[in-house]
């Protein structure tokens, strides 16, 4: 019998798929399109099995959809610019480009060995000139439309990566990449105006029915929409007003002080002469505090009285103005009206500085005594001490209060978002140069499209110094102004790698197009992506940026659709020894090693069998051994009968007995189950369990020596091989071929199941006597009670129990149980 040796068959089939170009996708087809996309990797190292999980999930979907008759686009590429590759290259003392392409080569060979069905003709590498030319083009389009701008602002600075970071790249005050605490710097930087799209990015989340709720919630919170009012407070003794933003205009009568962010220029304007010196001490102290910690709910509230008072516009009371560490300069107006009775931060502050606490929203259950309050009452309630609004339910009053404020001319309705503009310039080397020049005469001048790409020079001292490496390259830097022809200097910053990845899914459609980033008609045919698969860590980074860029390109007339990804699947991680796999922990499992030991089919099948694919799972050597044994057993079962069924057709199948009927029923039940498991939410682990169950039934049938039903076995082996093929495609091709087929199994149709074969026609009826099980009988489904009774009483074992007894009562539960009561 032919032995199962994966190394003998896997490479062979991979070469055949390659040679026959089976996975190359025609640009158009009669078939319905299915765009299946996995998040492309940073080629900053080689792949471990955690990465592979992403691609294996994608491959099951792609192969399944192909078999279901779709024109499947399943491309692959590399997010090849950016910090990860650059940092790794520096560590390894090698040029980032060399390092990147070396990794790309290794990753590609790793993936080919796993047998993933990518259309390699569409490979996209973001650090190639033919790609980043169009990344620069996208920058120009945003610039031309007022969506890319430069401004000086306090920015996040990673002292280790030596570059600024976007807010999205700061996680808990630390650099998303390296974990170093982020500091602040005042720098002039380039931004994309994603805030213009805040409302649409929020509202359109509702359309994304095929996205996981948690990802949508993360985006929603990140966008952070708040509705309320802006209200102006006149300053006592100065001809000016302080504008605040509040979500609780219903608490306006309870304001007992105001607070301003330390960074606000208002602080200098408001402070009285005698308090200036002490103020600067306070500001210096705050500037040393971490901005993320400083504004957290738990942080110690600290402030400084500016010596100045404002007037509450409704009560006309004088209230002190403070500068306080818990006020963010970048949110709202950078100033607040403080209501200690109803806001915990204000409450803490008021307690510390002995400021009055005035209740204006009373608890309808039990009235609040301001002098006894231990924390702020933040819920809704009945308005009190609030002039014309006394006695009204606070939630009901909100709209009316805003109307009142507008009528009185002291403020107006306002909506605020937490979302900030996307900071896209980086002071690092390995990225797409920002295509603008600075001319002494003309100022900022965008590079004309015909001059793209602005090439990234190769021979550059790129070690991070905090200064853009390109600014040290005179040859790159000095140029002529496209407008006036005079001397000009190039922008030396490069673009955030998230700009590269915000549009790569469009480039896969026309990866080689030279005069356009993509063809409108082609993109409108293929997009949106039907299924996107990747990690949840990109929820507010890549996934938000891509939605934004898609909407911009839509608005500029380049795309007909507004959302890039119709369905999103976020896979769980693979852990080893309780930890996320990482080189530094030394717990990385390499796919190459596993393939050498067990073959790609085992690796693929095990990765999916470990757990539901959306769940995290722990790698187990025993687990992969077990899956390998299953595939061997399946192979051995098949090859033990292969010579006998090779020339048999799966036609005119006659089922002689129950065991044959059971076997065929099992086959069709499993086809149905696996189809439903794949369609109904990626339940690959239970699908594989189904394959195991079917194989066990086959073993059982073959183990009982009897005359084999060859047409039945032919049908079983054929269909089993077909449903096995997305998971273990190499083994499936081999069996398919050895069955005498001249086609490739990848080009075959997914089998349907025979509804009639699913029907059970015999049932086992349990016979009880006085509640004790005394035997079983086989009967046709739905046999009536009389006939069952007859069968039971005729059964020799049962009749021996009944001898000499009186039957008092017989209870029959249809198709299940017959209970005989005797005395
Ligand atoms: C008065 C008030 C009374 C407030 C009350 C809350 C409760 P969200 O929901 O996050 O939008 N706020 C406004 N701008 C701020 C800033 N730059 N830094 C720190 N806090 C700021 O929160 C809006 C509320 O946060 C606003 O409503 C304001 O406090 C505060 F019983 O105004 B509120
Ligand atoms: Zn000029």
Structure commentary:
It is a single chain. With 823 residues, the chain is of the alpha+beta class. It folds into five domains: 32-120 and 504-573, HUPs (Rossmann fold); 136-221 and 421-498, Rossmann fold, CATH 3.40.50.620; 225-417, Isoleucyl-tRNA Synthetase, domain 2, CATH 3.90.740; 591-758, Isoleucyl-tRNA Synthetase, Domain 1 (Orthogonal Bundle), CATH 1.10.730.10; 762-822, Roll (Ubiquitin-like (UB roll)). Helices cover 37% and strands 19% of the residues. It has 27 helices and 34 strands. The strands form eleven sheets. It has a four-stranded parallel sheet with strand order 2-1-26-27, covered by helices on one side. It has a four-stranded antiparallel sheet with strand order 6-5-9-19. Strand 31 and strand 32 (772-780) form a beta hairpin. Helix 1 (6-19) crosses helix 24 and helix 23 (710-724) packs antiparallel against helix 24 (729-738). The two termini are 61 Å apart. The mean pLDDT is 94. Bound molecules: ligand ANZ and zinc ion. InterPro entries: aa-tRNA-synth_I_CS, aa-tRNA-synth_Ia, Leu-tRNA-ligase, Leu_tRNA-synth_edit, M/V/L/I-tRNA-synth_anticd-bd, Methionyl/Leucyl_tRNA_Synth, Rossmann-like_a/b/a_fold, tRNAsynth_Ia_anticodon-bd. It is found in: Cytoplasm. Belongs to the class-I aminoacyl-tRNA synthetase family. ATP binds at residue 583. GO terms for molecular function: leucine-tRNA ligase activity.
Radius of gyration: 35 Å
Give the domain tally. Answer: 5
Q: How many beta strands in the DSSP annotation?
A: 34
How large a portion of the residues is in β-strands, by DSSP E? 15-25%
Helix- and strand-based class? alpha+beta
* Outline type: globular
CATH topology of the largest domain: Isoleucyl-tRNA Synthetase, domain 2
Major beta-sheet overview: 4 strands, parallel
* CATH level-1 class of the largest domain: Alpha Beta
The percent of residues in helical segments reads 25-40%
Bound molecules: ligand ANZ, zinc ion
Read across the widest sheet, the strand sequence of neighbours is: 2-1-26-27
- Note the gap between the termini: 61 Å
CATH homologous superfamily of the largest domain, by name?
Valyl/Leucyl/Isoleucyl-tRNA synthetase, editing domain
Quickly give the CATH architecture of the largest domain.
Answer: Alpha-Beta Complex
